[in-house]
């Protein structure tokens, strides 16, 4: 299970098993999607699989996750999603009405994101060999001319922006799955980010890096970018937008909010001179109302992420080792 958590064990599995087996230079970039030359233009191509439990949760369902997750992965290359595929793996005995509800939610999410589901597949596995419904999606999108968003483009002097509160999705899933009460209702932040990214690129074309911090949270995404770009990242702990309910839940569960999954937030690395323009564009969009600067890219400690605490000390923000919250996306 730890190999599916998006942290250090996942990274080792990819680095030592899959990358050598597939031996592809584009794959080795390890972006949220692959940007490919095709017929004189560029497309982005991405695939993802969703195994969340429960299937329906406050703020969304596996149907919304399946669309938004792939649309957002494409957007992290600066691409606008056009087409999706949707493959369903169903466990024998699952209520057909429940499957239909998932399909309806998936279709509604696709229409909201402005993307078409144009192909798909269905498989059924024996009872006890699944968990109701798994969904796998793949997506194609078009990368606008002049856009070059890659995980290895972070540069010293860039500022790090997050589009809003972090850790919300993981805590929402845990609250409903374990029946925990944290003093207030909390809903998943799952939403499409393609519209937000389009507004950001319209404000400033040369955004260096985009990443949606899903499995493994902000900590994993920042570490992956720091290593790909061979730079250091320094965060300001006092600026991190962690809602009180997330902070309290993580303290109760012994989790680091920076390592908890998000499904509707993004990280952006932009030149300092463009930060105000990008922030203004983000805050004018519903998906970026809470956008704020949380850190900067530095030449020190290349490949590592550190945060400055409220007491002026520093601590390393590392990858989670295994699976903190299983089956959350």
Topology:
Layout: H1 8-22, H2 25-28, E1 34-38, E2 41-50, E3 56-57, E4 60-61, H3 62-75, E5 80-91, H4 96-113, E6 116-125, E7 133-142, E8 159-162, H5 168-178, H6 194-203, E9 209-211, H7 217-229, E10 232-236, H8 244-253, E11 267-270, H9 275-283, E12 292-298, E13 305-308, E14 314-316
Parallel strand pairs: 5-6, 10-13
Antiparallel strand pairs: 1-2, 2-7, 3-4, 5-7, 8-11, 8-12, 9-11, 10-12, 13-14
Helix pairs in contact: 3-4, 6-9
Written overview of the protein:
Residues 32-143 form the PurM-like N-terminal domain. Pfam families: AIRS, AIRS_C. Residues 155-301 form the PurM-like C-terminal domain. This is Hydrogenase expression/formation protein HypE. This protein has 329 residues and is α+β, with helices and mostly antiparallel strands. It folds into 2 domains: 31-142, 2-Layer Sandwich (60s Ribosomal Protein L30, Chain: A); 159-316, Phosphoribosyl-aminoimidazole Synthetase, Chain A, domain 2, CATH 3.90.650. Helix content is 32%, strand content 25%. The protein has 9 helices and 14 strands. The protein has helices spanning 8-22, 25-28, 62-75, 96-113, 168-178, 194-203, 217-229, 244-253, 275-283; strands at 34-38, 41-50, 56-57, 60-61, 80-91, 116-125, 133-142, 159-162, 209-211, 232-236, 267-270, 292-298, 305-308, 314-316. The strands form 3 sheets. It has a 7-stranded mixed sheet. Strands 1-2-7-5-6 form a 5-stranded mixed sheet, covered by helices on one side. It has a two-stranded antiparallel sheet with strand order 3-4. Strand 3 and strand 4 (60-61) form a beta hairpin. Helix 3 (62-75) packs parallel to helix 4. The longest helix is centred in the N-terminal third of the chain and has 18 residues, at 96-113. It is globular. The relative contact order is 0.19.
